[in-house]
Amino acid sequence: MSCLSLTPLLVLVLVLGVSLGAAFPHHTLRKDCSLSKYQTIASEEKEAMDKMRQEFGNDHKCNTRLFHRKWNAVNLPMSDRVLLVVAELNLTTAMLELPADPSFAELRRQPLKFFDQARADVLGCVDPAHQPSGRLRHRLNKLQEAMRTESTECLRASTIVNVMHVLENLHCAALRHKC
Ligand SMILES: *[C@@H]1O[C@H](CO)[C@@H](O)[C@H](O)[C@H]1NC(C)=O
């Protein structure tokens, strides 16, 4: 008897839950997505990146603003954040794995390994049905345009200068509402 009277309430809760979920499609991520391991980033990883940035990051080869500093992931809805991080990680890994001098090859080894793994993890979070917001689409178009028009040296230099920024955006995506 009491079970029966609970049923309409349960149905109501389910319907509400489903419709609320549908009302916020921008917050959907794939269910098997887990970025929790990036909520804390080991200091060895940060130090390795920072060392690479200090020794090889130079901005003089170009003035394109590939990684806009005003553009923090925190201002974006969650699934937009993930797309931004994917785009930044795509570029970062592509640039870090280019053929390089032995001295750079040594310094990039650990950061590249980290970013490759992060890229695979973040790609696993992308909901294929998610449409980026207008702001993000504009940003992604700019990034793609720069990748087509700027020289490889320019792209690589700006990527190295901005590795800590990419790491911050990844961290922010992993922290979700706590970012
Ligand atoms: C990142 O790379 C993946 C696979 O290489 C590609 O499917 C995806 O469209 C790229 N994403 C962005 C936002 O550049």
Question: What can you tell me about this protein's structure?
Answer:
This protein is mainly α and 179 residues long. It has a single domain (2-178), classed as Growth Hormone, Chain: A (Up-down Bundle). Helices cover 65% and strands 0% of the residues. The protein contains seven helices and no strands. Helix 3 crosses helix 6 (152-161) and helix 3 (78-96) runs antiparallel to helix 7. The chain is globular, with a radius of gyration of 20 Å. Mean pLDDT is 83; it is low at 6-26. Bound molecules: 2-acetamido-2-deoxy-beta-D-glucopyranose (NAG). 2-acetamido-2-deoxy-beta-D-glucopyranose binds at residues 83, 86-87, 90, 140.
Strand segment tally:
0
Hetero groups bound?
2-acetamido-2-deoxy-beta-D-glucopyranose
Tell me the domain tally.
1
Indicate the overall shape. globular
User: For the terminal residues, how far apart are their CA atoms?
Assistant: 47 Å
Low-confidence stretches: 6-26
pLDDT averaged residue by residue:
83
CATH level 1 name: Mainly Alpha
Name the helicity range: 55-70%
Which structural class fits the helix and strand makeup?
A: mainly alpha
Order of helices and strands: HHHHHHH
> What fraction strand?
under 5%
CATH architectural grouping: Up-down Bundle
- How much is the radius of gyration in Å? 20 Å
CATH homology group:
Interferon lambda
Largest sheet: number of strands, sense, barrel closure: none
User: Treating each run of at least 4 consecutive H or I residues as one helix, how many helices?
Assistant: 7
- In CATH, the topology is named Growth Hormone, Chain: A
